[in-house]
Amino acid sequence: MFKTVIVTVSALFLLYGCSSAPMKAPDIIPAQNQNLSGCEKYLSPDSKYKGGCAEGDCNNGSGIFVYNNGDCYEGANLNNIRQGYGVMHYKNWGEKYDGEWVNDNRVGRGTLIFNNGDSYTGDFNLNVPWGIGVYKYADGSIEQGEFFDYLFVNTIKLPGLTDNDKVEIGKVLEVNASSGEVSVTGESLKNGDKLFVEINGLMAAMEVVSPGADNSRCLMIGGTRVLIKSVYKDMPVYTLMQGIRRGNNTFLFSNGNRYIGEYKGNQMHGRGEFYWTNGNIYKGDYKDGMRHGTGVLTFYNGSSYTGDWKNGYMEGTGVYTWTNGNSYNGEFVKGFREGNAEFLWANGDKYVGGFKKDLMDGHGEYTAVNGESYSGEYRDDAKNGQGTYIWSSGDKYIGEWKNNHHHGQGTYIWNDGGRYVGEWKDHKMHGKGVEYAPDGKIIQQGLWDNGNFAGEGI
To answer: Do strands 405-413 and 396-402 pair parallel, antiparallel, or not at all (unpaired)?
Structure first.
């Protein structure tokens, strides 16, 4: 019997082993993934898809596109970019955007679900919450109204309860930091009940996910879930409350945010400091519950704004500095860089001129550290209209621009004195024009086609 098996296997090897294209079994879709649809199939740990257009038309239609980093988009496309309605799954961040897209950016109405359980539904601009919307924190608290660049603009009411109003329901039994879970004691807890522990003067919320008679499993939620390593056994656990007023000037919010400063009634009023769970910090003036006056906002990533505020917005004059060293010093309107300003790049290049909704707009002067310069009109962050550009070589262009290109009527003067006077298209001599030698004599006169002389035609 053993000998027969050997012969059979050898025969099979001789039959298939020398094939130039060995047979390969098709991939089997795991049973648990057979019912998945859309991006869910490609976000699954079992998916072997490497990236690219997975389904449909990802150029000019509806399709599913998987990115090399594992992100997945399902929705409408135009000219190979996201345009219209679509859903974007950010695999590494654990977040999801469901809404409108314009020119590959989140613009319009949409819903963004964060990995900590928070969500925002409303207007988007420049990829961020900007306009009218509702931000719902994982603990259940809500901010509803105007937003700009993730920041809530309208009045935030201060909590009125104190430490005397806290209701202790039990103690921490066990902490599993890797899963974000905390086991607690307590009776009559139900699935979905909200609790909190206090960590470093912050309310850290948790939600019951597996209630028991005297031992319930909870999940840390919201921005304070990153503090789970500071939770320890026998730490008191309380029923979640709207917030805590502590002493004369400290207010803790159920979402983990904190305010320290002056107030009037239940509103921030006067000088104060506001700390967000994501690391943002504002120190400055408040009026009727909103940032108003002068103040400094330091973002979690190290960028900052120092200047005037009005009704919750950056408005007036101020300085915005990015972590890469770039800076803007000038006017703001409702959070936008708008008006006259000086923009400095980290490498030393400088722009002085007008801005409109964060983009260079109007007359401006640009100077580069390599000696090049431009003086003229801008629109939509690009050279548009009349302007003069001087290169470090001494060459100069005087004339019309369109989207940073010579376009229309213009004169190009070489550093030896030669020049071209005529029409341009997309940075090239195109149309009627005359080329002059340094001594002023005409070299060529006629029609030009994409930078090349096409012949006399004037």
So the answer is: antiparallel
In this structure, the dihedral spanned by the alpha carbons of residues 225, 231, 237 and 240, taken in order and rounded to 10 degrees, is -20
CA-to-CA dists, residue 361 to 334, 340, 418, 427, angstroms: 17, 9, 32, 21
Rama region for 80: left / alpha / beta (φ>0; ψ in -120 to 50; rest): left
Q: Which two tokens stand for residue 67?
A: 């990115």
| Token pair listed for 6 | 């050997």
Domains of the chain: 39-152 (2.20.110), 167-240 (2.40.10.170), 264-455 (2.20.110.10)
Positive or negative torsion for Cα 332, 336, 342, 348:
positive
**pLDDT tens digits, residue range 136-182?**
999 999 999 999 999 999 999 999 999 999 999 999 999 999 999 99
The rounded distance, in Å, linking the Cα atoms of 76 and 57 is 9
Indicate the DSSP class of residue 157: B
Whether 113 and 94 have beta carbons less than 8 Å apart is answered as no
Beta partners for residue 371, in sequence order: none
pTM of the model as a whole: 0.84
Q: Residue 315 is encoded by which pair of tokens?
A: 């408005």
- CB 120, CB 134: distance < 8 Å: yes
